[in-house]
Structures are given as structure tokens and as C-alpha cells.
Amino acid sequence: MSSQSPQSTDVDSTAINEHWANISRHVVNSYVEANNAVLAAMGISPATSGAEDDEPDAPVTEESVSVPSVACSDETWTTDRSVSAVSDLEVGDFVQFSKPIAETDVSAFAGVSGDTNRLHLDEDYADATQFQGRIVHGTLVAGTISAALARFPGNTIYLSQDLEFRAPVAVGDTVTADCRIVEALGNDQYRLETTVSTDEGETVIDGEAVVVITESPDAE
């Protein structure tokens, strides 16, 4: 996925980001609709995200602790979270997930998604654009938010996700997704602030999600 038009190399960056966001929002909404269908079968009614509420983030009160990743992992991935039990979840709790976006990630995502835009795969072509090099698919970078959510205690299911793409990510960059609870909505549902940033501290994705978090079937 890309915001770049093959006929132009000086497209306004604001227009690029808006185009990025519009296309990616369509993809995310498709995922959300599928999750909502599952929740309906479970008898759970999705809550609205409440994005219009402009509430300040609550401070994190628990000391951050490193935790093991989920079953499928990689030595280059790192995880951090502030809570270890579903029953302890509250406003201010967070989870973070970091990974480098490798060449193999970009190639695999292009094959799985069908997004073979030359901006992601053709170095010579990308060098001639305003990005001056290949960039990672926006929805691949956004996928690290889902990876972070999977590392909350219990089972986490998406209900909604709003995204704003602020800057591109280069192949080889390491990114960190940060998901923080900003509101408990009831019925095991939570509204979260979701961001992705680079190792240099630049925020490349900003957004908000609503999720359901329940106990794992194997919880003791």
C-alpha cells in the first residue's frame, strides 16, 4: 500500500498521508467487521470508540515489567507491559511491542496481501520518489499495534481501530507499538490510545482502538 502516484514525485506530503489513512482505514474496517460478527455470535455488543471525547491520558501507576511473549516469537522482538492479570486491568495500563521491519517482512506481506506497489519492492523506482528509498507498507507497520494488543493478559479482540499515518517507515527500521487504556467501557471493553514510533522517537502512526479483553480459556 502506498500514497505515491507513479506519475508524480512531488506530491504534497499531507495529501500522501491522507490517502494512506483512507486506504488503510478501509482495510482495518474490514478486520473490525469480521471481529464484530464473531462477537455477535458470542452475544457481545460492541461499544463505540468515543473518539470525540478529548480526555487526558491517566498516568501509569504500576512499574513496567518485562514479560514472556506469546507462543510464536522471535529473538528480535521485545515486549513490555504494566499488568499481568485481566482482573487487574485499569485505566493507565499499557503494553508495548517492538520489532525491526526486515526485508523478509516486507516481501512476505506483499505476497500475502497482494500489495506489490513498487514503492515497497523496487529500490531504483523508490529512489526516484519523494521518499528517496523504499518504504514499508502502512498496514504492515500498523500490524504491530495488533501484535502489542495480543500481549495484554487474557484474550484481546478488536472492535474498532482509527489510524492516522504521520510518516513513512524505511525497510530495516525498528518500530514500537504502544497501547494504553484510557477508558473502561464496561462489559470487558476498553478504549485505548495506540501509537507506533521509531527508535528515533518519531511517531509514525497515531490512533485509538476499542477492544474486548476476557480471561483465557486456560486461566487458572
Itemize the secondary structure elements and their pairings:
Elements: H1 13-42, E1 65-66, E2 78-81, E3 94-100, H2 103-113, H3 118-121, H4 123-127, H5 138-149, E4 155-165, E5 174-186, E6 189-198, E7 203-214
Antiparallel strand pairs: 1-2, 2-3, 3-5, 4-7, 5-6, 6-7
Protein name: MaoC family dehydratase
InterPro entries: HotDog_dom_sf, MaoC-like_dom, UPF0336/Enoyl-CoA_hydratase
Organism: Halosolutus amylolyticus
CATH superfamily: Hotdog Thioesterase
**Based on helices, strands and strand pairing, what is the structural class?**
alpha+beta
- Order of strands, main sheet, comes to 1-2-3-5-6-7-4
Number of domains: 1
CATH top level assignment: Alpha Beta
Q: Kindly, what is the distance between the CA atoms of the first and last residues, rounded to a whole number of angstroms? A: 42 Å
- At CATH level 3, the topology is Thiol Ester Dehydrase, Chain A
The shape is elongated
Would you identify the CATH architecture?
Roll
The profile of the biggest β sheet is: 7 strands, antiparallel
What's the number of extended β-strand segments? 7
Number of helices: 5
What helical percentage do the residues reach?
25-40%
